[in-house]
Specification:
The complex is a heterodimer of chains A (182) and B (145). Chain A is an alpha+beta fold and 182 residues long. Chain A contains 6 helices and 4 strands, in the order H-H-H-H-H-E-E-H-E-E. Chain A folds into 2 domains: 2-74, no CATH class; 84-178, Alpha-Beta Plaits (2-Layer Sandwich). Chain B has 145 residues and is of the alpha+beta class. Chain B has 4 helices and 4 strands, in the order αααββαββ. In chain B, a hairpin with a 4-residue loop joins strand 1 and strand 2 (95-102). The longest helix of chain B has 48 residues, at 15-62. Classes of the chains: A alpha+beta (182), B alpha+beta (145). Chains A and B meet through helix 2, helix 3, helix 6 and strand 3 of A and helix 1, helix 2, helix 3 and strand 1 of B. Strand 3 of chain A pairs antiparallel with strand 1 (82-90) of chain B.
């Protein structure tokens, strides 16, 4: 019985072989988990180096763009339109001209409003209606004040004369003047 | 198996470690690329806003008409037999129409000779006159150059 039992057990050398095989398998599995072939490592190394170069380029690009943004933010926003105050002051300027040149101001209306200039954009304007009477040359001077404002858009302009006015003409002027957004 | 072990043993860092480094590099690259895109969009918006206001100004000031220069020569003349009574501007069409009463055709011709000069800011595009009770009704249309 003892002999039979001895035969069924592995011999020590067989056990050693099995242990070595198991250890080898364990190392193999561990290697799969934590390691790789030198070629893989080399390839990964190359990829990392390429990424590093790209990253450096991108970082430089970011730095350049940040500089551009900072510079642009520091620059004053272009404001070619006259201010609302300048445009509103055209009214008093016209009135002063009328008085200084002996014209009669028959009608004077001004109002601020917003007008559409395209489907998606509106702009603020001051509208003027001026009806004045006097010599044609003096009335022309009134127009000269309007001509001096680049954003003045005349909507209606009429000079009329009647025999009872003798030397006088009547100027009827309707216009809007664009100004900057406040 | 032994050769595999020696291969693994010969690696200096380890593929897994490199994979982690690569993954971090990819994330960093994506972050920077996103930042580039973000900044580019911001710059584009800032430039577009500036360009838009400049274009709007150019469009409005470009349609500004110096009316004094345009109308003055049409009213400022001396033809004794012609009395103008109306000068009307049509800003949209860039036209000016004048109307008056002339004693005879010669006065109309004199008027034309005074307003149809080379350096005039307007071009005469049409004239008409009609006999009325006390003279000739004269109308003329001018186009701004």
């Amino acid at each position: 019985m003892l002999e039979r039992h001895k035969k069924s057990l592995l011999r020590p050398d067989q056990i050693l072989v099995l242990l070595v095989a198991a250890a080898g398998f364990g190392v193999y599995c561990l290697g799969q988990q934590i390691g790789g072939l030198p070629e893989e490592e080399k390839d990964l190394g190359n990829q990392i180096r390429r990424r590093d170069v790209t990253l450096e380029d991108l970082a430089q690009e970011v730095a350049d763009l940040e500089t551009q943004v900072t510079e642009l933010e520091a620059q004053e926003f272009p404001q070619p339109f006259p201010s609302q105050a300048e445009v509103t002051n055209l009214g008093p300027a016209l009135s002063v001209y009328v008085v200084d040149n002996g014209l009669k101001l028959l009608n004077f209306n001004t109002s601020r409003r917003v007008i559409p200039i395209s489907e998606e954009e509106q702009r603020p304007v001051v509208s003027y209606l001026v009806i004045a009477q006097g010599y044609a040359a003096s009335l022309m001077g009134l127009l000269e004040l309007v001509d001096a404002v680049d954003t003045a858009v005349v909507e209606a302009l009429e000079f009329s004369w009647e025999p009872e006015l003798q030397f006088d003409w009547i100027l009827n002027l309707c216009m809007i003047v664009h100004h900057s957004v406040q | 198996m032994l050769s595999r072990f020696s291969e693994l043993n010969s690696t200096s860092v380890g593929v897994e470690t490199l994979k982690v480094v690569l993954e971090k590099a990819v994330i960093a690259e994506n972050d920077e690329a996103f930042r580039v895109q973000e900044l580019t969009e911001k710059l584009d918006l800032m430039n577009a806003a500036r360009e838009k206001i400049s274009n709007t100004y150019a469009s409005i000031s470009g349609s500004h008409i110096p009316w004094r220069t345009a109308v003055d020569p049409l009213l400022n003349f001396a033809v004794p037999g012609l009395q103008l009574s109306l000068a009307t501007a049509d800003p949209e069409k860039r036209q000016v129409m004048i109307a008056g009463l002339a004693n005879d055709v010669g006065d109309v011709v004199s008027n034309r000779s005074q307003v149809e000069v080379i350096n005039s800011p307007t071009d005469l595009i049409s004239t008409s006159f009609q006999q009325v009770e006390n003279g000739l009704q004269y109308n003329a249309e001018f186009m701004l150059k």
